[in-house]
Amino acid sequence: MIWSRIVGTGSYLPPKVVTNDDLARQMDTSDEWIRTRTGIRQRHIAEPSQASSDLAVEASRAALAAARILPQEIDLIIVATSTPDYIFPSTACIMQAKLGIKGCAAFDIQAVCSGFVYALAIADKLIRSGQHRCALIVGAEVYSRILDWKDRGTAVLFGDGAGAVILRADSKPGIMASALHADGSYVDILSVPGNVCGGKIVGSPFLRMDGQAVFKFAVKVLDEVARETLAMCGLTPADVDWLIPHQANLRILEATARKLGIDPSKLIVTVDRHGNTSAASVPLALDVAIRDGRIKPGHKIMLQGVGGGFTWGASLVEM
Ligand code: UT7
User: Fold this and answer.
1) Rounded to the nearest whole angstrom, what is the distance from the C-alpha of residue 10 to the centroid of ligand 1?
2) How far is the CA of 248 from the centre of ligand 1 (A)?
3) What pLDDT score does 251 carry?
4) Would you say the CB of residue 11 lies under 6 angstroms from ligand 1?
5) Is 186 in the pocket of ligand 1 (CB under 6 A)?
6) Which domains can be identified in the chain, with CATH numbers?
């Protein structure tokens, strides 16, 4: 039987740091409000010259080095992003060229903050079918480009970054189970309701959100999808060594752990250092906790995404 295993991770945050105090100098907000409502202390902002593919390349190089494999060994690339370089071609194709890889399948996934979890589940299925053997899966975002910097209700929440994993065929699991969901009737609670038509922006190019509706929905579905994924393996929340939900907001992370009955010490939190980086947040947090030694071989990790669409999903991963 073919399984897929994570054999390397990497992440990248652009060097420019914007603290809560920096934001308080340009809009009516405060470090205290942002920290107590969200747990965020700072975010990283890409330079104008840096596109999602540039962040993705840096994270990918780190993941390739960690996995000790050459770019040429990759036979599948999936990039999860809501802030692609272009309308087309895909950020995955642009990144593929920047990495000097030719010929392998490459495409983007658009599932907003659930994008990485969607991409991981798809890559797992393609590897388990025998069609591919070594996948590069990346979440990369430049949300700073789609924020209305005059809207304090959203501008303080997001940041830029990228995270990557190498997923390889193996005789033992790896990705133990995954579940993916969406409910398009919630389109309006989190969206960038714009497009380009006839050379002009039609609608709005900025992120809009009903924060409280998102909060309630996120905690409900993160609890449900974790239990669903564990049930597929005959396991319970007590079997989870580390919980890595989408790094949206510390209060959402803590409420999810509480609902699942998982001790807060098993929660991986990086949202404080980079804000909500959408599809990049789960692989970023995973990479941090692997590199600092908390996640060890044999540990069971619950990765969870939730975001615009609404979309949500989870993967239970044995390292
Ligand atoms: O990937 C998913 C992405 N989305 C999320 O993770 C968002 C989930 N939602 C949340 O995290 C919370 O709803 C927020 C952090 C966005 C907001 O927290 P809240 O406790 O729901 O606050 P609120 O929207 O009810 O606003 C409370 C007050 C309002 O003032 P009034 O009407 O009570 O006078 C807001 O105008 O806080 C005000 N406010 C701010 N004050 C200072 C809103 N944003 C700010 C701000 N600084 N940045």
Assistant:
1) 32
2) 13
3) 97
4) no
5) no
6) 3-171 (3.40.47.10), 176-318 (3.40.47.10)
pLDDT at 80: 98
Verify whether residue 113 is a known catalytic residue.
Answer: yes
Which is catalytic among the residues 93, 104, 113, 134? 113
Mark whether 246 is an active-site residue.
Answer: yes
Question: Could you report the per-residue pLDDT of 166-204, keeping only the tens digit for each?
Answer: 999 999 999 999 999 999 999 999 999 999 999 999 999
State in Å: Cα 190 to ligand 1 middle: 14
For residue 212, how far is its CA from the centre of ligand 1 (angstroms)? Answer: 8
pLDDT at 203: 97
The closest residue, in CA terms, to atom 26 on ligand 1 is 153
Q: pLDDT digit string (tens) for 51-92?
A: 999 999 999 999 999 999 999 999 999 999 999 999 999 999
Q: What confidence tier does 102 reach under pLDDT thresholds 50, 70, 90?
A: very high
Q: How confident is the model at residue 95 (pLDDT cuts 50, 70, 90)?
A: very high
Q: What is the pLDDT of residue 119?
A: 98
Three-class HEC string of the chain: CCEEEEEEEEEECCCCEEEHHHHHCCCCCCHHHHHHHHCCCEEECCCCCCCHHHHHHHHHHHHHHHHCCCHHHCCEEEEECCCCCCCCCCHHHHHHHHCCCCCCEEEEECCHHHHHHHHHHHHHHHHHCCCCCEEEEEEEEEHHHHCCCCCHHHHCCECEEEEEEEEEEECCCCEEEEEEEECHHHHHHEECCEEEECCEEEECCCCEECHHHHHHHHHHHHHHHHHHHHHHCCCCHHHCCEEEECCCCHHHHHHHHHHHCCCHHHECCCHHHHCECHHHHHHHHHHHHHHCCCCCCCCEEEEEEEECCCEEEEEEEEC
Q: Tell me, using a 6 A CB cutoff, whether residue 156 lines ligand 1.
A: yes
Nearest CA to ligand 1 atom 36: 153
- Of 20, 44, 93, 276, the active-site residue reads 276
- Per-residue confidence (pLDDT) for residue 99, from 0 to 100: 97
